[in-house]
Write a structure and sequence with these properties.
Largest sheet: 5 strands, antiparallel
Strand content: 15-25%
Number of helices: 9
Strand order of the largest sheet: 6-5-4-1-7
Oligomer: single chain
């Protein structure tokens, strides 16, 4: 067989295989202009009308997938939580994060890369958790907040290599948790999200390892 013909035959064979994922960040792309929300702006749009629009084709790092009850549609809808610490930030993304507008509609996105996320709750749980949280609903959050002295006394918290990473992330999570805990109008969903976020930041800080070549890796767990 002539080499040219042999090469033509081989060229028709399509080899397809799933490539390994080498990024710890999950990315989605926006199919259309889409708002970034807080939980309260989803549950009470008539009261909390504070949203920021992210633009079509923007690629966004997300860290969590959760159902949130949408009262105006009388149903639970799937949302992604934006990754607070992103290697790439647009102006609108940064503004959304600074205003704690962490949530985008999953229906407005397409999956791009990174670990696949699964919902952290069910639509039924989202509906039940839309009600105002009581002191009893905040017990787990209070316990986490009460660990502040232990966490801040840890060697990792005092490690200067972590000042702008793990320590900063924990401090921000603790600040948000205290705000949720002190509010009399937050939903159970907001309390559970604060519990999740503070828990992951505590674990990331306490389990942080020594920097390699002066670089601290992002070990933010997903979901």
């Amino acid at each position: 067989m002539m080499p040219a013909i042999k090469n033509m035959i081989h060229a028709k064979i399509k080899l397809r295989q799933k490539l390994a994922t080498y990024t710890m960040h999950t990315y989605v792309g926006l199919k259309q202009n889409s708002n970034a929300y807080s939980i309260s702006s989803i549950l009470k749009p008539e009261i909390t009308n504070k949203n920021i629009t992210l633009t079509k084709n923007e690629n966004l790092p997300v860290i969590r997938e959760v159902y949130v009850w949408v009262p105006k549609d009388n149903k639970a809808e799937l949302f992604y939580r934006l990754n607070y610490y992103s290697p790439e930030e647009s102006i609108n993304y940064e503004n959304a994060i600074q205003n704690q507008l962490f949530y985008i509609k999953a229906a407005d996105t397409i999956y791009l890369s990174g670990p696949q996320l699964t919902p952290a709750n069910t639509p039924e749980e989202a509906q039940a958790d839309a009600r105002i949280a009581t002191a009893a609903d905040k017990q787990d959050l209070q316990k986490l907040i009460d660990q502040e002295k232990t966490i801040t006394a840890s060697s990792n918290y005092k490690n200067e290599d972590y000042v702008n990473t793990y320590k900063a992330q924990y401090d921000e999570a603790l600040k948000q948790a205290k705000a949720v805990n002190s509010s009399t109008s937050v939903s159970i969903t907001e309390v559970k999200e604060a519990v999740w976020y503070l828990t992951t930041q505590q674990q990331a800080l306490l389990n942080a390892t020594k920097p390699v070549n002066g670089r601290v890796e992002d070990t933010m767990p997903v979901n």
